């Protein structure tokens, strides 16, 4: 695998945690940990199932004012304690992917990549997110993202920012 | 099967992101565009077609040439999604911070 090229994804966020990398990474790896922090702040969240391995699923429930929604991660690359990859989508009670139950336009499924680095006891997570394609052949293409193509995207976003500011 | 096209599908592919970036700079004709890529003209045409169906790109015919022009307004939807994502993950990371603090405090007490 090549060096992570992260700046080109449409969504990117960097956050520093005051904890060692192993601990931060493991917060994603057990149902016990996820139950304590994962999920939207406005909903009551619970873990339904977790299979923490490539191809495994994390199925969770979100409740708010009697309305229940479900979410699902599908894990891709898991490389302790460096890289974690998963797609996230809304799901039904059986864990099948469904479109977002909101009026605002959102991608049906988002691929997140998390990179963990540690320095002086603090851990930095760099997360990137991009929508996932509908067709399987395009999915294959997306998972082998070429650096050159990706670089072009930064310029698009600069352009977009410029456009939005004008 | 009819595949539903939306802007997220349009930008999910790196080649399409690159095409979008190219045409956002200035309108370009399809032949020039296709020459930039190490793939068949048909493949590039398909990407252009998808971008056009998603409303991010407009194709106009001038004589024998097809010109591609970006429709950046449609990217608002994408930037709204990115904002949504940022807010969501900031909240998640805040919550993760709390959890990590708690776990580390408990550990210290046990020692």
Outline the structure in words.
The complex is a heterodimer of chains A (166) and B (111). Chain A has four helices and eight strands, in the order E-H-H-E-E-E-E-E-E-E-H-H. Chain A has a single domain (11-165), classed as START domain (Alpha-D-Glucose-1,6-Bisphosphate, Chain A, domain 4, 2-Layer Sandwich). Chain A is α+β, with helices and mostly antiparallel strands and 166 residues long. Mean pLDDT of chain A is 81; it is low at 1-7 and 135-157. Chain B is α+β, with helices and mostly antiparallel strands and 111 residues long. Helix content of chain B is 64%, strand content 13%. Chain B has a three-stranded antiparallel beta sheet. The longest helix of chain B has 35 residues, at 76-110. Chain B is elongated. The N and C termini of chain B lie far apart (62 Å). The relative contact order of chain B is 0.13. Chains A and B meet through strand 1, helix 2, strand 8, helix 3 and helix 4 of A and helix 1, helix 2 and helix 5 of B.
In short:
The complex is a heterodimer of chains A (166) and B (111). Chain A is of the alpha+beta class and 166 residues long. Chain A is built from four helices and eight strands.
């Amino acid at each position: 695998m090549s060096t992570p090229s992260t700046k080109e994804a449409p969504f990117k966020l960097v956050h520093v945690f005051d904890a060692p990398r192993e601990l931060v990474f493991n917060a994603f790896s057990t149902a016990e940990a996820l139950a304590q922090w994962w999920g939207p702040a406005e909903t009551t969240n619970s873990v339904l199932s977790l299979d923490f391995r490539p191809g495994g699923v994390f199925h969770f429930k979100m409740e708010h004012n009697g309305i229940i929604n479900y979410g699902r991660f599908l894990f891709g690359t898991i490389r302790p304690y460096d890289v974690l990859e998963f797609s996230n989508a809304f799901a039904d009670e059986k864990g099948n992917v469904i479109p977002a139950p909101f009026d605002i336009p959102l991608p049906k499924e988002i691929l997140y990549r998390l990179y963990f680095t540690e320095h002086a006891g603090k851990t930095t997570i760099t997360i990137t997110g991009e929508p996932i394609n509908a067709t399987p052949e395009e999915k294959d293409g997306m998972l082998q993202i070429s650096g050159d193509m990706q670089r072009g995207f930064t310029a698009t976003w600069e352009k977009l920012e410029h456009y939005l500011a004008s | 099967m009819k595949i539903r096209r939306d802007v997220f599908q349009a930008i999910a592919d790196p080649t399409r992101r690159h095409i979008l970036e190219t045409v956002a700079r200035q309108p370009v004709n399809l032949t020039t565009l296709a020459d930039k890529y190490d793939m068949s003209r048909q493949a590039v045409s398909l990407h252009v077609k998808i971008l056009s169906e998603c409303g991010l790109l407009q194709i106009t015919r001038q004589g024998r040439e097809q010109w591609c022009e970006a429709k950046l307004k449609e990217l608002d939807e994408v930037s709204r999604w990115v904002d949504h994502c940022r807010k969501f993950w900031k909240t998640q990371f805040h919550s993760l911070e709390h959890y990590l603090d708690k776990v580390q405090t408990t550990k210290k007490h046990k020692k």
